[in-house]
Design a protein that fits this description.
Blueprint (H helix, E strand, L loop, with lengths): L7 H9 L8 H14 L6 H27 L6 H15 L3 H13 L19 H28 L8 H27 L3 H27 L13 E2 L4 H9 L6 H6 L8 H11 L7 E2 L2 H8 L32 H4 L14
Parallel strand pairs: 1-2
Keywords: Membrane, Transmembrane, Transmembrane helix
Protein name: Fatty acid desaturase
Organism: Gimesia algae
């Protein structure tokens, strides 16, 4: 497995940012899961519904943390991200290494055919009918489709991952995952606690996957440009709820600058986007002040689900660095062809 290499300045930013408070949602999520499992202190439906939504959103936040671990930017020590990522990935049915390999290429080849994370929307060989069916199935069944998409990095004969050591690591992670879940399901069966398991884990996990799918769509679906700042939707909240949700999700909603600078500390993303807007006042960036406005902008793409070439972009040019196998400091300057980057961003 590759390890993300940070500059001294990047490590300093990672070490000085506040991370622990962003996990506070887990206190409420854990309490909600416990209440659902024990069916205590009441089984009244308003309480159960409330706990289910709290548990589901906390699980969604853990998926955002999983994303952060793939960059190995939880803190300045990569092993912390790796171990936490493997633990979260096991519960999500996704190999940490497979996710990291897909996500590296997602940054390097955003909206291009090589963007395996956005398959099938990025693949020009897929039909519109297939993409529609997949899109509409993914909304309610993201807990199945997402593990499938990432497993292709390990099991597809066309996988872009060619390093046999990385393939072996992915397979070991999937084997461990199978053992862990066999033990969990065996214990649930042995103790006859299927109803508490359904209420406390399965249903919240399903709802969390729906939220996660909406997040992915809101950031990417229907976006044409290969430029990271123009080919993703960015949400910088103007209200307290959006700001709090952004904070506990490691600022992943500030998606454009994150895509261009995948090694930047997440607390620096808003400042980075503000700088780009100030430096390029004539550029219309897809930046939204509420998540609902970003969702509204996304909805038409549900009928024509695709990115890049599948929504009218010209075929991309050859990248400066073919076979990108790790995160870089600036995707636009280090990987993309100048033709695939907006003119105002080429020299910045």
């Amino acid at each position: 497995m590759s390890v993300t290499h940070f500059t001294a300045k990047e490590i300093t930013d990672l070490e000085t940012k506040s991370t622990t408070p962003r996990f506070l949602h887990s206190l409420f999520g854990s309490a909600a899961i416990t209440a659902l499992a024990l069916q205590w202190p009441t089984t009244a439906w308003p309480f159960v519904v409330g706990c289910t939504l709290v548990a589901a959103y906390s699980m969604f936040c853990w998926s955002s943390c999983f994303h952060e671990t793939s960059h190995q930017s939880i803190c300045g020590k990569p092993w912390v991200s790796i171990m936490l990522g493997r633990a979260i990935g096991t519960m999500l049915f996704v190999s940490y290494t497979a996710y990291r390999e897909a996500h590296i290429r997602h940054h390097a080849y955003l909206n291009k055919p090589g963007d395996w994370e956005l398959w099938p929307y990025s693949d020009p060989t897929t039909s519109l009918t297939f993409r529609r069916i997949f899109c509409w199935l993914e909304l309610p069944l993201g807990f199945v489709t997402s593990p499938f998409v990432y497993s292709r990095l390990c099991f597809s004969k066309n996988t872009p991952v060619k390093n046999p050591k990385v393939i072996k690591t992915m397979r070991i992670e999937y084997a461990v995952m199978a053992v862990v879940w066999a033990a969990i399901l065996g214990a649930v069966t042995w103790f006859s606690v299927w109803v508490p398991f359904l209420m406390a884990w399965v249903i919240p996990h399903w709802i969390a996957s729906v939220i996660q799918t909406f997040r992915k769509y809101t950031e990417h679906l229907g976006m044409q440009s290969y430029d990271p700042l123009l080919g993703t939707r960015t949400v910088i909240g103007s209200n307290l709820i959006t700001r709090v949700c952004t904070y506990i999700n490691f600022d992943i909603f500030v998606h454009g600058p994150h895509h261009r600078h995948p090694k930047i500390a997440h607390n620096k993303l808003v400042e980075k986007m503000d700088n780009y807007q100030q430096d390029n006042p004539d550029t219309k960036y897809p930046v939204f002040t509420t998540y609902m406005s970003a969702i509204k902008h996304t909805l038409p793409a549900l009928w024509n689900p695709g990115v890049g070439m599948n929504v009218g972009a010209p075929a991309p040019k050859k990248e400066k660095w073919l076979g990108a196998d790790n995160f870089v400091t600036d995707v636009a300057r280090e990987i993309l062809s100048d033709r695939d980057v907006s003119k105002v961003h080429r020299a910045s």
